[in-house]
């Protein structure tokens, strides 16, 4: 066979393999007679002869023959890898697999490195088509041959393309940049040169196929190589097109995905694409991945088109099943609707039902689980069965090594936000973090969200809080977001974990960010330091007061109440800056505005106090603004009594919450009365024995025993 015949052989084989195979009557074996009357042995001998001839003669091929041979073999490898081993496949595929693939289905590295070496020796003879086809071939099989000087084939192709300033047509450029993005070789100079050529075109009529647009934009976005002029030119061309009917659903989704990923949100382009999809009679031609990518793109680009998202959601809801959606499609879709703020309960219900009814969640990656949970919580859609299934799956997992810090943070944030308690889940995640050698992979937001979640869910885990505190102190300079700082410190204060070193270490950072706090952030940071009782003159100064005054109309009741408690703490020293009178009054009024509720525990305690001859006054409003459950006079001394129920402690522990700690301290120091506690756990132990309860209270208040 001539070199040209050998080249044509591999090209023809690759084309034939894309056609549907006829069903085989029996399992392939060496006795099968698959093609005419050729036996397996004869076919194997023939193909080995052609293969060896190809390998031995590759150095004598010209540029066209070499690239077509390489591309033909690469396509065969790609087909064999995609299809895998099949029962009853014809003998030719069995033989080709042995020649071109290793046992682990990787391409024959030695063969393709041989072809790469031959290409380098004559790369100066390659024109644009040959260069792009060569790069495309190796990208198709994810193969990047390296040479002794540590360069690789893609380095040489890029240099040749740039240095010679070869003119590429639209398809060649598309294939070239697609190849580099696919093998993760973002060659900036090459991408710039390719992009400049596109921009220099008078018009984009050379892009005869929408796939060329799609692949080109996908490549720049995937490689993270910016080229604003390229994206602008392509967007203008698409916007000005008379019709988008020539664009397949996959092209539209890839284009939208590329603009969103590259952070080039061209509003006119997004509107044109959305209008085209909305006007479609049906979305049946859109595969699940295309639908998922489209809604993800619009949410990411922050150009949510309500009609588009509504149409896609309705299409998904009306589908017979979601079996065509892989986990990534599901999680990205949910994330998109939650991020865009589009409320579509039927969509969330359908996806949740599909996940809950799945036999196993093993196909879901940790990020997909965390994104899905985050979406339900962010969208305010409660689905306890879904949360229960995911939590059980995680708890039953042998290892959590596949979970990254962001996944941990998003998961616990979702359960805390949705108010779905699952102690075993929180315990398992916390234990894993504690056992981790280093928390260097955690970003400030991961620390903040994780601890906020444990505090909000009121999950007691001292070792976790200590480990995160130590890590956060070491990396305090990395915290550049005021919300992360406020939420982190609030979490420790809310849990009653007064780590003085943590609060002192973060004081300069918290002060530096003072201009960027939200109203709730200002209130949280102030309240946290009040609980911790750590003086912070560089943080709470005239500038802080000024920020509070400027934002006074934006504070909600909870934030005003927190500021009132901070003001009580701050003004313990007359020299400290104080809130203006008008704002003080607003904070005080907010603090006392909540109607008191009397618990069964409080009723019982008050009843027993009366039984031992005391005259308790209930829900007494003190000068500080705090309400005391009951106040009694004992030997002429006023004593306040708090019936401390579960909400006054962390989880089922005896550790008081930050609010409880602050109240006890401030009532004592400001109102000047002794405050004693009747913890619910102690009271429960007394059961319904009134005598024991009365004796407990006498001992607590220093009264003589009934037996004395």
Automatic annotation (TrEMBL):
GO CC, any one term: mitochondrial matrix
Pfam family, one: RAP
Record GO terms (molecular function): RNA binding
All copies of domain RAP, residue ranges: 639-699
InterPro entries, alphabetized: FAST_kinase (IPR050870), RAP (IPR013584), RESC6_dom (IPR058917)
UniProt cross-references to PANTHER family, sorted A to Z: FAST LEU-RICH DOMAIN-CONTAINING, LD45607P
Protein name: RAP domain-containing protein
